[in-house]
Every structure is written in structure tokens, then in C-alpha cells.
Amino acid sequence: MAHRLLRDAEADGWERSDFPIICESCLGDSPYVRMTKADYDKECKICTRPFTVFRWRPGRDARYKKSEICQTCSKLKNVCQVCLLDLEYGLPVQVRDTALSINSNDAIPKSDVNREYFAEEHDRRARAGIDYESSYGKVRPNDTILKLQRTTPYYKRNRAHVCSFYVRGQCTRGLECPYRHEMPVTGELSQQNIKDRYYGVNDPVAMKLLNKAGEMPSLEPPEDENIRTLYVGGLDARITEQDLRDHFYAHGEIESIKMVLQRACAFVAYTTREGAEKAAEELANKLVIKGLRLKLLWGRPQAPKPESEISDEARQQAAVAHSGLLPRAVISQQQNQPLQPPGTHDQPPAMPYFNIPPQPQQERAFYPSMDPQRMGALVPSQDGASSGPSGSGDNRSGPEKQHQGQHYAYPGGPPPPQGQFYQQYYPPYGYMPPPPPPYQQYPPYPASMVPPPPSTGTNHQHPPPYQSRVPPPPTGTDQSAYQHRAPPGSNQQHHPPYQSGVPTPSPSAPPPATGEQHHARVPSASGEQAGTSQQMPSSETDQQS
Amino acid sequence: MPKVKTNRVRYPEGWELIEPTLNELQAKMREAENDPNDNKRKCEALWPVFKIAHQKSRYIFDLYYRRKEISKELYEFCLDQGYADRNLIAKWKKPGYERLCCLRCMQPRDHNFQTTCVCRVPKHLREEKVIECVHCGCRGCASGD
């Protein structure tokens, strides 16, 4: 038993070692580490045998850490002696075992004498050099585990513990208190047990991670069949084009690789669509080059660089507009200027990048007084380019489409059939629609003013609020606003950034929709045109629910 | 019964001048020893003892070496009677240790990695600015600051 005195250091089986088996995170970020070694200082938390305890400080802002389990136990499960996470992947034992389908739990006894005997036998065999069945080196990493693994060390776990006196409000040490003065994070994850974590049974962190793994989104191919480029984000200076080539060549013939270092991204274009799809499928969440986890998304067929500046700017301003920081008048003026030059050519200017998180649903309070153009400000008209494609479709869009600047709220003038026309152009909602001109033509909001025909689900999200909001403002001003809008508008140029941002993530669409429904209700309740406007929200809810 | 020889204490001259202060300090020390250490840490409860011991020694050291107001005889008398710590004063005479808080903080044998206590590190070289050393509660006894 471990609880007797040590008589013979060699034969007794108490463990001695020279250096701990620890992971990078537990060792710390500092290259200078002083470690104390104490033989037989504590008993292993799992097998209760005395072992050599190492104690060190992993970095300047860290607490002191010491080894908690003995080396025998850590070798049996291939885990770090301190944090009990896997040495290779940094994952809890349960996650690693389920991902790699290893089950060694039966072999390891868990009760008292059995456990000690097993541990001692194992130790003896290991010391004698007999190769025990260590399956950890031989297992090939599979997809799941590559997706889940931790690629960089995580030093937050080395922080000091939370000051329990502070939690009660009684910490008298004040500034010199070495513990963290923060409120502790409570929840299901705080009830962890070292034995459960070690044996891989009933571990809350592992369950959470496995659930998340099950729901990780896969990279959906875009609807537009012409897109054969993949966007790679999160680049670093160390990653070269050759690295990218090496990783991507296996899935198909690479047409071109364009690296945009200033934006830390790259675009890999394949000659075939199948190649791109295959690459996306295989590399979606597992792309790790030189230790850096990279993000993989579908790209846009346009050349990224010239547009990127514009779209970036436009996006930024859009973001500012949407967060309500700048008055709309200012923004509309700001956006007019930079967007003018790109608007002069037929190319739709702003292609947002997919790596930029999609714009949050913008709540636009669509009152005419908020938009200077609605109030009659004249904006220099754009060239006939925007009016060209209008011939292809919507008459009602004629005057509206040619607006410059922004109209967020359109009077609900356009009759439904024409709105339907709009909708048809909408399906490639988050992606580059094949014909660029229609893109220019359709500021999303006017189209969305129309009651949504049940054409596309994504469009539902946008139309409802606008519709209900628009009717309440008196239609009289709308007509006059229309007339003022004879000059073509380039507002659509900044719309694209929003457009693609907003509808693309389908998970985010429903919540904003529900939020907007609330908004929809309020004006409709107060609007004088309650009759018509109320019908619309109710019909929308029918469709939506 | 055999005659028991006791040594009566004979106070040298000048004692009356320093006696009241020394009595006060003694009283403080007794208080520190006896106070109920309720909300303090185990080590923190001992800090006042070290502080007052330092204070007493400092008083006598200052009187003799700095202000030169007492005679050597009186000084030696105080040291013999235990009103000041001889070893601590010996350190104060050395350069760099003029403000030493206690003898433990300076002893490398008492620490991990054979270093001194953190209170001996000057403030501009330390990372944490506010510390209280665990032995004596010292906040910094380097000679510079």
C-alpha cells in the first residue's frame, strides 16, 4: 500500500522522475522557468501513490502550478500531468477517446488495491523497457479530432484563482492580493471532478465540446455554379503561396492563387468547380498551416483587390450607420463620394468579403425625415448605366432605382406584381448575382418594401418590417419624394455590402426577423393605415411561422 | 538552602532618558503578542511582532550611531538586556542593508532557489509594485527606496 513508509527506494515502486510530462500551455510562455523538484512529495490524485512533485510558475502573470498525477497515470492516458488534457491535441480524455474510438477504460481498474497493483505493474514494465500497448502513438488523427484540437497554447488557464474573499466582499489585502478579483463563473462546467476527467466519464467540458463538434457547420457550396474560388482567412506572414499550393493541390487543379497580405487572406481559384467543392469539403474546419488555424469560405468571382478598398470603406461606413452612430445625413454624404467613382462603371462596386462577419440586421427607422433625399435634397444624378438594365424589368423601379444616396425607407408605392419581379433578382441574395447590372439596380430596400411573395425564404426576413413601417408615413410625401428622385441614385452601390452580409447566414436570419416583427407591430399599431398595414404583418407571420 | 545569587540589574547613567520610550515599546510588543488574531492570516498575525522588534532596535541604533546621545556602556547594556537585536543592528551597519526589515528576509537558505525575500528587491526592478513579504509584512526594505 502506498501508505507505508518508504523502505527501499528502488523496489518499493514509489515513483521518481526527472522531469514532468506536461503540455505547452502548462509550461508557460516564458523561456525562463525555475522548477522545484520534491521526491514523494504528494500522492497522485488518481492512484494515490507517492510521486515526484514539480512546481514552477508558467509565466509572469501565472500562479504556481504543480504536477497533480503521477507519471504512470499520465502515460496510461497520454495526458499532461497538470491539466489532464491530451498531450497532442489538448482535448479532454473523453473527447479524444470518442473522437478516436479508443476505449481503454476496462483495462484500468479503478478500485483500491487493484488500481495500485495495476499501476505498479505498469510502472515496472515501463521501467524495464517492455513495450506496453500504447495505442496513442499509432492512431491516425481523424477529421473530427483535427477540427477540435487546440492549435495554440492556452495560457488563460494559468491565471490565479478567483479570490474567494473578494466574492464575499471581504478581501482586506487589496492591491497586494495575488488572487483574481473577479466574480467566479458558475454553471454546469464548474462541477468537475479530477477522476471523472481522467477516466473520461461524465465530464461536462467534454460533453459540451462534443455537442459543439456535432453542430459545426459545414461549408455549403454557393448556388452560383461559376464560383470556383475559395477564400482563406487568418493568414500570417509566415505562410507562403507554396504552403497554400501544397495544401490545396490535392483536391483539384489550381488555376491561380492570389494572396492579399494586407488583409491576411488569400484566394485559391480552381479550374473546376468540383475541385473547389472537394477542397471546401475536405478542408473546411481543418485547415491548419504551420500551426495557424485558417478560415475557409467560398469566395467571390470578382477580383478582390480593387473592390476591397471600396467595399471595406463602404462596409465600415455601413457599419457605423447601422450602429446608429452617425446621423444618416452625414453617412449618405460620405458614402456618396467614394461610391461615385466606382459607380461610374458598370461593375457593381462593393463586394463584401465573407470573412467580415455579416452586418447585423439593421433596424432602420424609416421615416422620411431621416433621409435627406426624401426631404428633397438633390443629389447629382448618376449616368445612364443604372437606368440601362432597368429596362429589363421593373417599371416602378425606374425612378427609384436611379437614386443616389440612400433610401432606407421606401414608400410602399410599388404594386406587388412589380415587386415580384424584384424578388426574382434577389435569390442570389448573399452572392454575386450573375448579371451585375441588376445588382446595381436593386437597392434592397425598395424591393423589400413590397409584400413578399413566397418566392424565397431569405427575402422574407427583410420585407416585413419595411412594409409595415412604410405605410404609416403618409403616402403624400412619398409621391413627392418619388419625383425628387428623378436623378439616378447610387445608393445601390452601398447596398450590396449589406445585402450579402445580411441574408447569407441563415441562422442569424430568423432572430432578426422576429425582432423586426416586433418593430413591425409597433408602427402598424399606431399607423393610421392600420387596416392595410395590419393585414400585411399578419400575412407575413403566417408565411414565416 | 544554599544561597541563591541573583544578579541585580544596575542601570547605567542616562537610562532615565530612554526608559519611558523603551517602556512604551515594550507595552506595544506585549499588546501585539496578545492580540486576538481573528481576521488575519496565520503569517499576518506575526507581522506586528517583527515590526515592533525592528522599531525597538532602530531606536537604540539611532540613538547610539546616528544621534550619538547615549554612551557605549548604555548601548551595550540595552543590547544585553534584550531591548534591541544585536544581529540585526550588525546588518544595518553594512552598506546596502541599512533598512533591513528582519533577518529572515535576507537569508537565502530560507528561500526557494536560494534567493532573498521579495521585499529586498528595489521597487523599480520589481513587477508587482505592492507587496507584503510573507515573513514580516515588509513592503520594501531595499536601501534605495
TrEMBL record, chain A:
Region (Disordered): 335-545
Pro residues biased stretches: 349-360, 430-455, 462-475, 504-513
Domain C3H1-type: 157-184
Residue spans of biased composition, Low complexity class: 384-393, 419-429
First and last residues of each zinc finger (C3H1-type): 157-184
GO cellular component assignments: Prp19 complex; U2-type catalytic step 1 spliceosome; U2-type catalytic step 2 spliceosome
Compositional bias per record (Polar residues), positions renumbered to this chain: 526-545
Gene Ontology terms for molecular function: DNA binding; pre-mRNA binding; U6 snRNA binding; zinc ion binding
Domain RRM: 228-301
Pfam family, one: RRM_1
CDD domains: RRM_RBM22
Bilayer-spanning residue ranges: none
UniProtKB keywords: Metal-binding, RNA-binding, Zinc, Zinc-finger
Record-given protein name: Zinc finger CCCH domain-containing protein 40
Species classification: Eukaryota, Viridiplantae, Streptophyta, Embryophyta, Tracheophyta
Gene behind this protein: LOC113731916
UniProtKB/TrEMBL annotation, chain B:
Alphabetized UniProt keyword annotations: Nucleus
One annotated GO biological process: mRNA splicing, via spliceosome
Secretion signal, residue range per the UniProt entry: none
Superkingdom field: Eukaryota
Subcellular location: Nucleus
Nucleus found in the keyword field: yes
Keyword Nucleus: yes
GO cellular component: spliceosomal complex
PANTHER family in the cross-refs: PROTEIN BUD31 HOMOLOG, PROTEIN BUD31-RELATED
Family indicated by similarity: Belongs to the BUD31 (G10) family.
Annotated protein name in UniProt: Protein BUD31 homolog 2
